[in-house]
Amino acid sequence: MVNEKDVMLQVQAGQLDKLALLYESNKVKLFNYFRKKGNNRAQSEDLVQETFMKILAYRSSFNGSSTFTSWMYGIARNTAADLYRKNKSNVIHEDIEDHEVVAEHCATEQAVSSQQQDIFDESLASISAEHREIIILSRFQQLNYHEISSLLDCNLNTLKSKMRNAITKLHEQYNKLSGEVQ
Amino acid sequence: MKKFNLALLGLTLSTLMQSAYAIEKTYSLPLSNPGEPVSLEIEVHTGAIYIEGFDGESIEVSATMEEIETNELNKIERIIKDVSAELNDGRGNNIEKIGEIISGHKNKHKRKQRSTEGLKSVKNNSMQLEIEEEDNEIEISSEYSTQNVILHIKVPKRTRLDIELYKGGDVEINNISGAIEAEAFKGNIIASGVSGPMVAETHNTDIVVSFDKLNQKNPTSLTSHSGNIDITINKNTAAKVNVQSYKGEILSGLATEFIASEDVQRKNKGGKQKIVIGGMMSAEVNGGGQDITLATYNGNVYVRSK
Amino acid sequence: MNHQTIIDWKLSSINNDLTAELILTDEMQQYIEANPELVKELAFIDAFWQQDNQELPSNELDKRFYKMLLQAQTTQQNIETSQVVKQPQQSSIFTGVKNWLSASSIKPFAQFATLGLVFFLGFNANQNSNSVSQQEKNLVANSGIENLQQEVSSLSAMLALSMLDKSSAAERLTGVAYSQQTDLTDPLLMKTLMSTLEHDRSTAVKLAIINTLNHLPDISEQESQILALAVKENNTLVKVELCSLLLNVGSQETKNELLKILNESELNPDMADFLQRINAISHI
Fold it and tell me: A102: domain range?
């Protein structure tokens, strides 16, 4: 496995082509990160592109004291936050047309569990932004507690209790939604 | 007249300082990666810095460090204050009066001195000069206000310089083709045989630069509050020279005329009314090229061609 | 022992939290078995963590990324080689593509090379195809130029951001010059310029940014920040320029506010002199 920190340091030293390695290994995760945060496909792709532009532009600010992953998500979070500020009417829930695309996408790949996944997605979209963020970073982006706590600038114990609350809320929502469906 | 007085003052200060204890040392540092880019960063609180580019692959440092006694330091500052007050008095510079001030201070100083018979000076080893080299990046620093450090340094011509000097004498740079950044708070910055880019800043002392050629990659900018800015460029150098002085004069030896930048702007904005004081003037020399910006508030700007 | 302990253990184990004790003790096992609702919650967490519905971005994203990378590399090369001889933009992009494709570090990754090749051929097709009519060709060429201009503008913004971040003042000055080449509509670039104006240690860089702002038709969004900077600035050169900027392009309210503050504050002789001259003019 390539050490992404070293690769980023090479990009920083001027080997810009090495950014392709980082892009290839992170594009899907980042794209899904933005999708889970409630952006549609086009917005999410814009955000991935913008994140990598910023990684390139800010490459000299990467100091190697954090992992590349947590540095990258720091940039990704700010990029998404900028978009929300720019476009305040942006609703967290995706529009209907887009939802159909998602459903179709799931149907082709995993028809069996698609209904359950829809409920997962819906539960996730219905909890608070702070809770959603923690779950997305942990579950979908596979950041560890340490990385998440430095990213969100809170201490480890606070993060753990937030995580527990988030999961409880998510479970409640899931129960409610799956109850409605049945 | 003013120049003469200041020279006299400089002479007196140097004699006062000579009474302090001094050590002289030389160092030679071979580069870790010969042939590769080199950078030199210098931060000195009080002293003078002379840098010369040469064809070697090492850094040669000769440092003279002398202690400045605190009460001596205060006295020097007092003299400077009194003399400056006299110079700025407006009734013409009275050399005799200035002489009195300086000798008066000196006499007072002498009366206070105690007998040193039978005593010997205890050597002060608190003087410090740090020199570090790692991967062709050299850092030299002396941050103590109680020592006067005079550095004579030889570096490869391509070296990139970053110099800060708070007090004391001048920064002098010769034959450097690398980028230069320099800031001097009390002394002049004098450079010749350089190619830029150069970004230099002083408060009320002069910046004098003679360019061999001009780096077209990054802009050059020289800024001073009350000092004069004096540059010389080759007559075939391509550049866009921007000059600005609020209260001083601008003197040019260039064949190209200077045009007010604001005029150009005003045309673009359909004659919108503007308040312009000390606006910028520009001259595109030899068809124009990288920017050389020279800005001062009280000083004069001299642009020479060689 | 309570629900909280068990949930914490579960979350720590799925999050690879090395600071926590990850062994499931008999005591914990018994507690779980005694609480069916807890079993359900744990099952939910497992199910949620195991679901796999990752979506894939479109190929368009790849194209955009590699195009951006290519431009950054081309520009990097152009900056590294002397800018005295200015090459036509298109030939340098071709050179960039060739260099990029032949870069040894790329070769092991066949997919990148293929993508690059696709882009390269697409670019060539635009230039050389004989099958399209002259009119179509012109259209393609025109939109090509427009696109190129747009890209150059966003590229300049990107380069400006990168250069403003450098430790060398001369390079930051280049960053300011690049910003001036854009229309300054990029909010991130504007934010960076304003924070550089506030914090840069070089007077030259600050003056260059003020000069850039002077070219803007409208500074209403930055006005209050500039006013605050003008008031607190200690360097006379910078202070005078900030004041001139506000007096030139600021709104009437800001101008009045500035003059009021200046007239009420203790100024050094140079600033007092500046204010006197401004007052003299503004009364006309």
Answer: 95-182
| Euclidean distance between CA atoms A26 and B17, whole angstroms | 64
**pLDDT tens-digit readout, B148-194:** 899 999 999 999 999 999 888 899 999 999 999 999 988 999 999 99
Residue that terminates a domain, selected from B137, B152, B187 = B187
Domain holding B170, by residue range, is 1-110+127-187
Tell me the pLDDT tens digit for each residue of B234-260. 988 889 999 988 888 889 888 888 888
> Where a domain ends, among A90, A113, A135?
A90
Q: Which of A109-113, C7-11, C123-127, C203-207 has the lowest mean pLDDT?
A: C123-127
| CB proximity B196 to C under 8 Å | yes
Question: What is the chain A residue with the closest CA to C68?
Answer: A53
Q: Which chains touch B (3 or more CB pairs under 8 A)?
A: C
In a domain, C107, yes or no: yes
Give the integer Cα–Cα distance in Å for B224 and C274: 17
| Residue-wise pLDDT tens digits, C191-246 | 889 999 998 989 999 999 998 898 887 788 889 999 999 998 988 889 989 998 88
Whether residue B194 is contained in a domain is answered as: no
Q: Tell if the CB–CB gap between B274 and C169 is shorter than 8 Å.
A: no
Nearest to B197 among C170, C240, C273 (CB): C170
| Residue A59 CB contacts under 8 Å (≥ 6 apart), including other chains | A8, A11, A12, C162
Give me the total of CB pairs closer than 8 Å, taking one residue from chain A and one from chain C: 136
In a domain, residue C189? The reply is yes
Rounded Cα distance between C171 and C160, Å, is 10
SS3 content of chain B, % helix, strand, coil (to 5): 20, 40, 40
B149 and B282 fall within a common domain:
no
pLDDT tens string C243-261? 988 888 888 888 888 888 8
Which DSSP helix (H) or strand (E) runs through B242? strand B239-245
Q: Which of B189, B217, B280 should we substitute to test contact with C (largest number of C Cβ atoms within 10 Å)? A: B217
What is the domain extent for residue C63? Answer: 59-155
Inform me whether the C-beta atom of residue A98 falls under 8 Å from chain C C-beta atoms.
Answer: no
Note whether C270 and C210 are same-domain residues.
yes
Q: Are residues B21 and B103 in the same domain?
A: yes
Give residue for tokens 């298109």.
C90
The dihedrals phi and psi of C21, each to the nearest 5 degrees, come to -80, 120
Please give the tally of structural domains in chain C.
3
* Residue B160 host element (H or E): strand B160-174
Is C146 found in the same domain as C213? no
Query: Scanning every residue of chain C, which has its alpha carbon at the shortest distance from the alpha carbon of A149?
Result: C17
Cα B192 to the chain's mean position, in Å?
Answer: 12
Do A24 and A104 sit in the same domain of this protein?
Answer: no
> HSE-up of A140 (CA within 13 Å, CB side)?
25
- C-beta contacts of B107-114 below 8 A and 24+ residues apart: B109/B75
Handedness of CA A6, A9, A13, A19 (dihedral sign): positive
Torsion angle of C-alpha atoms C113, C119, C120, C124, degrees rounded to 10: 160
Chain B hits for C177, Cβ within 8 Å: 219, 291
